[in-house]
């Protein structure tokens, strides 16, 4: 991976997951970088509909399938 692959670039260039309200669908390596860069504000979770991963912000949103 090149140094210019900043987390924002990774996220904005990612394909979108229709099953997860258009959330960016990312490889595990990329979500790990985003979580690290967010200093704990982002949480990763595995997409229930595909082999990819997503990130979300616990304090501002909640994946609908994680609601009770
Ligand atoms: Zn998804």
Shape: globular
Poorly predicted regions are none
Helicity level, as a percent range? Answer: 25-40%
Mean pLDDT: 80
Beta-strand proportion: 15-25%
Total domains:
1
Q: Figure out the total of helices.
A: 2
* Largest sheet descriptor: 2 strands, antiparallel
List of distinct ligands in this structure? zinc ion
Order of helices and strands: HEEHEE
Number of strands: 4
Describe the fold and architecture.
- There is one protein chain.
- This protein has 68 residues and is α+β, with helices and mostly antiparallel strands.
- The protein has one domain (7-58).
- Helix content is 26%, strand content 21%.
- The strands form two sheets. The chain has a two-stranded antiparallel sheet with strand order 1-2. The protein has a two-stranded antiparallel ribbon with strand order 3-4.
- A hairpin with a 5-residue loop joins strand 1 (15-17) and strand 2.
- The longest helix has 11 residues, at 28-38.
- The radius of gyration is 12 Å and the shape is globular.
- The site of zinc ion has 9 residues, from strand 2.
Question: In terms of topology, how is this protein built?
Answer:
Elements: H1 7-13, E1 15-17, E2 23-25, H2 28-38, E3 43-46, E4 53-56
The chain binds zinc ion.
Write a brief caption for the model.
The chain contains two helices and four strands, in the order αββαββ.
């Amino acid at each position: 991976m090149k140094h210019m692959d900043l987390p924002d670039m990774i996220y904005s260039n990612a394909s979108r997951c229709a099953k997860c309200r258009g959330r960016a669908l990312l490889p595990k390596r990329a979500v790990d970088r985003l979580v690290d860069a967010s200093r704990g504000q982002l949480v990763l979770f595995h997409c229930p509909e595909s082999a990819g991963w997503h990130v979300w912000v616990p304090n501002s949103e909640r994946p609908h399938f994680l609601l009770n």
